Amino acid sequence: MRRELLKTVKRVVIKIGSRVLTDDDGALDMSVIGRICGDIALLRERGQQVVVVSSGAIAAGRSELGLTDRPKTIPQKQASAAIGQTRLMRAYEEALAPHGFKAAQLLLTSEDLGSRQRFLNARATIDTLLGFGVIPIINENDTVVVEEIKFGDNDNLSAMVTNVAESDLLLILTDVEGLFNADPGRNPDAVLIPLVQGITRELERAAGGSASGVGTGGMASKVAAAKKAGRNGVATILIAGKCPGIIAAAMRGDEVGTLFLPSEAGLNGRKHWIAYTLKPAGRVTVDEGARNMLIRKGKSLLPSGVVEVEGRFERGACVRVCGPDGKEFARGLSDYSGAEISRLAGHKSSEIEDILGYRYADVIIHRDNLVVMP
Ligand code: GLU
Question: Which atom, in ligand 1's list, is nearest to the CA of 215?
Answer without folding.
Answer: 8
